[in-house]
């Protein structure tokens, strides 16, 4: 069965062009880019080109691009760099809806001598900016706010926040893992100091990430050792993946239009039709400021894991904010922070599309979902009650 | 993805006995929407005093639905004495085992059975025995102790997997550890013996405890607390942020804030919201 893949905020298909570009560097062209001989040096030249492609995607300078192993490493590197650059500052600001890469690091630092402010969001998932600005102080080492939320697709006004944060002389970092490649980003005209990217969210392979570090930003390396990456991240380069990342950066620039027109229209169709066909369903998140590929829909009175497993019977891949799928007992921290009621949080499904999705697939999902929801609701002791209530 | 057995998957995809018996002899309801799973079990006895029919309605994950289906299949044909002896392990075994994190689904089946039998026998709804330890999921010390004893549990994570206690805000982890230690015969950590405090000491300690122990936990949920005054053993506080509008704030105040202050400052303290 060919999967109908609508879980692109979890990971994406590696673009065939990217695979093709990478292959020689797994076999014949295995040289070390740092070597003096041309065999290695040629790989080095290819890495340089990849760095330029990523820089172009971001409107950045090549020397502002640092290759890492993943989005999590980029986030950790950025936050640790900021707190080590300002050891006297003991306050960090982030949000209640960050990816665990930032959220759990924040909670860890909170237990290790830092005051950490987690900025709340409203019912639509929009940040309380006044709260954030009020918490800025001379003791604040870094503000880290994600560009777009992975669960709901809600886009945060990071450019605006970065400007205010810069006026206070505080470092601003954004986890832009879900945003890069989906919405235009231009670092040349921005107050953002550091920005994280994950390769596998934009059709590059897993195991490659990027940290953009604005020229002049105080930095301390996370991994120490060799001189690679200008001494900012030691360790022999993951050549093939960096080259793949470079190619993916070129591709997503080409795809950006398609993503924001055709993919957005597919997402809108999926969302509109599901809301129309399934009673007691609603969208989680800010419908205005949202990634073009994401919709999180809450189906009341049922549990997400059952929905996903029944979808899996048809090869439809998506994610759930439910407790049962996460291994913990609480539904997603993002939906909880938004105050999504339990009746809906447990039954929330996230569909995240990519340029590889087709209208045919959307129609198939629109067709298959209502009976799946109905079937589980027929089993649910709360369904009759819920039906009457609305 | 969970590692479910074929039988669990099969019972999830083709659940037996879904529904509600209108003229039931016994009914048992456990769980709630906020807990993430719930089960409503009804049964009907035959002339031979054996369970002639059993039906379930379940809100929950695949293993909760499979456990409910398994339970109804198992108890059909049993006398109530026999059905009362079905344990959560029996339900899990019937399905060829459940992932450890999902054992609470089988516990839910057993609890519903117990309640349905009690209902049939006209026993008053059994009050939850003991004292609630886990506020998030409403689990008592007696339930935790039973789970630890019957299933040989040794860690807080085990307890969470079986009865969910400790899976939410995690504030009860110390108490759960205490129960585990007691059952396992380990010497529990000696409780702090409060000594007579001067007023100044007391206020300082209350303030420090609020800052260090309580505020960070409330902050995580977007709430906050402020110490207004201390009068003898009355601690007057104000809840802020999301706590102020949260319907559970009284529980927060009484059980969480007061418990912490009693534990860390003085047993005699009473917390009031002003």
- From the N-terminal CA to the C-terminal CA of chain A, the straight-line distance is 38 Å
What structural class results from the helix and strand content of chain B?
alpha+beta
Order of helices and strands of chain A: EHHEHEHEHEHEEEHEEHEEHHEHH
Separation of termini of chain B? Answer: 48 Å
Number of strands of chain A: 13
Strand order of the largest sheet of chain A: 2-8-7-6-5-3-4
**Helix run count of chain A:** 12
Percentage of residues in DSSP E strands of chain A: 5-15%
Q: β content of chain B, as a range?
A: 15-25%
Number of helices of chain B: 11
Structural class of chain A: alpha/beta
Order of helices and strands of chain B: HEEEHHHHEEHHHHEEHHE
Q: Largest beta sheet of chain A, briefly?
A: 7 strands, mixed
Biggest interface: chains and residue counts?
Answer: A-B, 33 and 36 residues
What strand line-up does the widest sheet of chain B have? 1-2-3
Helix content of chain B: 40-55%
Give a description of the structure.
The complex is a heterodimer of chains A (390) and B (274). Chain A is of the alpha/beta class and 390 residues long. Chain A is built from twelve helices and 13 strands. Chain A has a seven-stranded mixed sheet with strand order 2-8-7-6-5-3-4, sandwiched between helices. A four-stranded antiparallel sheet of chain A has the order 9-10-13-12. In chain A, strand 5, helix 6 and strand 6 form a beta-alpha-beta unit. In chain A, helix 2 runs parallel beside helix 7. Chain A is globular and about 70 Å long. The model of chain A has no long low-confidence stretch (mean pLDDT 94). Chain B is an alpha+beta fold. Chain B is built from eleven helices and eight strands. In chain B, the strands form three sheets. Chain B has a three-stranded antiparallel sheet. In chain B, strands 6-7-8 form a three-stranded mixed sheet. In chain B, strand 1 and strand 2 form a beta hairpin. In chain B, helix 1 packs across helix 2, helix 2 crosses helix 5 and helix 4 crosses helix 5. The chains are: A alpha/beta (390), B alpha+beta (274).
